[in-house]
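Hi Y.,

Following your request, here is the sequence exactly as I used it, all 149 residues.
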Amino acid sequence: MASDYVGHGSKVTLHFALRLEDGEVVDSTFDKQPGELEFGDGTLPGGFESLIQGMKAGERKVFDVAPENGFGMPNPTNVQRFRRNDFPQDLDLLPGMVFSFADAQNAELPGIIKTVAEDEVIVDFNHPLSGHHLQFEVEILEVSSVEAE
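Below is the corresponding structure, written out as tokens. Let me know if you'd prefer a different format.
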């Protein structure tokens, strides 16, 4: 039997919008295909998932999300210094540019170039939304039970 409410064991079809403090839209599905997730599968950060728990199909809400419940606060140890010659010399590095690095397990790790000097490049590996108060708008379109395997 399908549960009418979002919670453990439910599959959720939803529209959402994520906005910065100034109202700038970071991401939205309202003008495209809705998203689908299984509650608890890690698709949504825990702070966002807890907000939609208990909602039902047809409900639409707007939540204010503090950094500690969203993408966390920036961690100073995630800002790293590199030698400029660690990068290709013909590459025009600019502040704000996203550059892909490989971590210790060879997984892709994006970093944002913060500053570029003649001999040094500072890269920020914090999530780009860390430290931001966000507005999370969500509309639950459908809630169904995850079928047992």
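The domain at 76-124 is CATH 2.40.10.330 (Thrombin, subunit H).

Thanks again,
Q.
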